[in-house]
Amino acid sequence: MKIKTSITLSDDLIQAIDGYTREYHTRSEFIEEAVRVFIKQLIRKQQDTRDLKIINNRADYLNKEALDVLTFQGDPNVA
After folding, report:
1. How far is the C-alpha of 66 from the C-alpha of 78, rounded, in Å?
2. Of 26, 27, 21, which Cα lies nearest the Cα of 7?
3. pTM over the 0.70 mark
């Protein structure tokens, strides 16, 4: 379902969008796709931030595990 809305954009942005209307047919299609892509980027950034926080919280444990594995494999560079 589509809902009609009104937005105000600067002239230079409208000109840039209009340069792509051949590919997207209308300004609305272009703007909708741009917003979808941006929202996906925001979601991915949130996921990456959450994942990095988890990794950082477990860094000491993960590093110890990695050293144990290297020691088990007989890596001569691990003391």
Report:
1. 10
2. 27
3. no
Count of domains forming the chain: 1
For residue 41, being part of any structural domain is answered with yes
* pLDDT digit string, tens, across residues 24-61: 889 999 999 999 999 999 999 999 999 999 999 999 88
- The three-state (H, E, C) secondary structure of the chain, written as one string: CCCCCCCCCCHHHHHHHHCCHHHHCCHHHHHHHHHHHHHHHHHHHHHHHHHHHHHHHCHHHHHHHHHHHHHHHCCCCCC
Looking at the predicted structure, is the pLDDT value of residue 9 above 90? yes
- Residue 37 domain boundaries: 11-73
Residue 1 lies in a domain: no
